[in-house]
Amino acid sequence: MEENANLTAERSLEIITEQIERSRNVVAKDTGQLLYLSGLATMGTAVIVALVNGLSASPMGQLLWLILPFIIWGIKRIHDKKQVQAPVSLVGTLVCKTWWSFGYIVIGFYLFALIWNILVLRLCDNLTTATQAMVAITPVIILLMGMAVAVTGHILKRRWLVLFGILGGLLVAICEYSGVIRAIIVYSVASVKTIIVLNLITPCLSIFLFSLIGLVIPGWMLKKQNP
Amino acid sequence: MMFPALDPLLHSELRLAVVSLLMSVYEADFTYIKEQTGATSGNLSVQLDKLTAAGYITVEKGFKGKMPRTTCRITPAGTEAFRDYVKALKKYISAKK
User: Which sequence spans correspond to the domains of chain A?
Assistant: First the structure.
């Protein structure tokens, strides 16, 4: 870009719009990369949790979810070191704060729900009553994740990302909460033992699915759209 | 109808690009501005000096690890000048229509 004082008003406005758009695209690419990597890490953790749950036939593997924030934090640190960092902008800060808020709420909720569910199982004599009193962790986390993706889409002005967040979040959360995924498993598997084991795996399957729909695919698309 | 005069310091392709870029970020380093505007280092340095002299931006030289780093930030005067410039531009364009 050379110095040119003979600018028309239209060209001036074009330069301003172009620079603001470029800045937004740099943040979008950076966010895309992080969504993509965080999605892959979440999918990987879901597989490990499912394997541990399945092999031990107990929900102990759920505790492994607590490692995920540290994995994502590590990924962000490596990403920041390797890449030419996008400058701190209002758009970038908003995206960052959306995901930090999501992280804090999810960790807090997860710890509360875990303790609550353990207490309910210990205190209730009747398994049916206990099941009713237990907090459904997975659908809530998926809904929150869907909301974070949708808010990110609004900030980055990407309508398709908003749709991915809302539709993906609602679809997977409803399937998980209403037991559609469980029902499919129950109808397709005959053995009772296998059903119990698969019941321990279905929340991981839902998280795996939403990570693919809400994080990995949008992240990859954001990366591709802003080369 | 009287048109407000366009700030001559901002009415230049590269300087306008730099200020527009700095308007959307808290701060940006020299390499990033160079990359985004496609300017040469020499030309960019000259334009940054002019903007600094007018008090529109501040330039801070420091280090990131062992690498030297020049960081630019827009000042309140720069923000004000940019707003006035955009207002004036809008008047020109609406008058044309």
Answer: 11-83+90-225
